[in-house]
Write a structure and sequence with these properties.
It is a single chain. Helix content is 40%, strand content 16%. It contains 8 helices and 7 strands. Strands 1, 2, 3, 4, 5, 6 and 7 form a 7-stranded antiparallel sheet that branches. α1 runs antiparallel to α6. The longest helix has 37 residues.
Length: 265
C-alpha cells in the first residue's frame, strides 16, 4: 500500500508554501494554505467575539439541494479530499482558522503568523499528537500481537526476521523485484477485524508504484514474490503505519493485504 503523507506532514507542506512567501513564485507552485495547532502563536488573529457555528455544518447547509457547477464540483472534491486527510484532528486543529489560512493563501494574502510562530506551535501539536497516538494505539498493538501469534502457526504461514508474515497462494514464474523496483500490482487491504480500508480491485485497475514509496511491510513482502504470484501479507504495526492513524487505519493497527504481483517494471 502507498506510504501516505501523515496529516501533520500534509499540513506542514500547506503552511510552508505560504509562510515562505519570500521565496517568490516557487512557493506558489507548491501546496497552498497553512496550519495552526492551537491558538499559541496566533496573536495576530482576532479572537471570535461570539460562538460561531461549525464551518463544516454551515457548508453542509449551504450545499444542501444546490445544483453545483463543474467548478463547484471540482472545488468541493478538492476540499473533501483535504478533509479526509484531516479526519480525526478536531481536537488539535481549529478548523475555522484553518479555513482562513486556505483563503489567505489562495488570495495571495500575507500569512497571519510568522514561520517562527508556526514552528513553535507545530512542535507543540506534534508532541500532543504523539502522546495521543501512543496512548490510543496500545490496545491495537496488543490485539495485533495476539492475532499474529495465533496466525503464525497456521498452515503455510511463514514469519520473517522482521516479524512480517506471509503466505504464497499462487507461485509466480517471473522475476522478483528489489527494494527500489517499480511494480504493477493488485491488492486488497483489511484490518484484523475484517474491515476493508482499500482495494485496487474495487477501483478496477492495478497500482503502479515504487517499493521505496510504500510501507516497510510492502517493501519486504513484495521482494519475496515473483511476477504472477498471489500472496497474503500480515504486516505488524511497526512495519505499517506505527502509532499514526492514517485515514481509516487506526494507529497501532496490524494490516492484512491480499496482493498480486503482476509485473516488475
Amino acid at each position: 500500500m502507498f506510504k501516505k503523507l501523515s496529516t501533520i506532514a500534509l499540513v506542514f507542506c500547506l503552511f510552508t508554501a505560504v509562510a515562505c512567501g519570500e521565496e517568490g513564485q516557487k512557493a506558489k507552485d507548491d501546496h497552498a494554505g497553512h496550519d495552526h495547532a492551537e491558538h499559541t502563536g496566533l496573536d495576530h488573529v482576532e479572537p471570535a467575539k461570539e460562538a460561531k457555528a461549525n464551518p463544516i455544518d454551515l457548508a453542509e447547509k449551504a450545499m444542501a439541494d444546490v445544483e453545483m457547477s463543474s467548478t463547484q464540483k471540482a472545488s468541493y472534491g478538492i476540499g473533501y479530499s483535504m478533509g479526509q486527510q484531516l479526519a480525526g484532528l478536531g481536537d488539535v486543529l481549529d478548523f475555522q482558522t484553518l479555513l482562513k489560512g486556505i483563503i489567505d493563501s489562495a488570495k495571495g494574502n500575507a500569512p497571519k503568523v510568522t514561520q517562527e510562530q508556526f514552528q513553535t506551535a507545530f512542535a507543540a501539536m506534534q508532541s500532543k499528537m504523539g502522546a495521543k497516538d501512543a496512548e490510543s494505539s496500545k490496545g491495537n498493538i496488543e490485539a495485533g500481537k495476539r492475532f499474529l501469534a495465533e496466525n503464525a502457526v497456521k498452515e503455510g504461514v511463514k514469519t520473517t526476521a522482521s516479524g512480517l508474515q506471509y503466505k504464497i497462494i499462487k507461485e509466480g514464474e517471473g522475476k522478483s523485484p528489489t527494494a527500489t523496483s517499480t511494480v504493477l500490482a493488485h491488492y486488497k487491504g483489511t484490518l484484523i477485524d475484517g474491515t476493508k480500508f482499500d482495494s485496487s480491485y474495487d477501483r478496477g485497475e492495478p497500482i503502479e508504484i515504487g517499493l521505496n514509496q510504500v510501507v516497510p511491510g510492502w517493501t519486504e513482502g513484495f521482494q519475496l514474490l515473483k511476477e504472477g504470484s498471489k500472496a497474503i501479507l500480515w504486516i505488524p504495526s511497526d512495519l505499517g503505519y506505527g502509532n499514526r492513524t492514517s485515514g481509516p487505519i487506526p494507529g497501532g493497527s496490524t494490516l492484512i493485504f491480499e496482493v498480486e504481483l503482476l509485473e516488475v517494471k
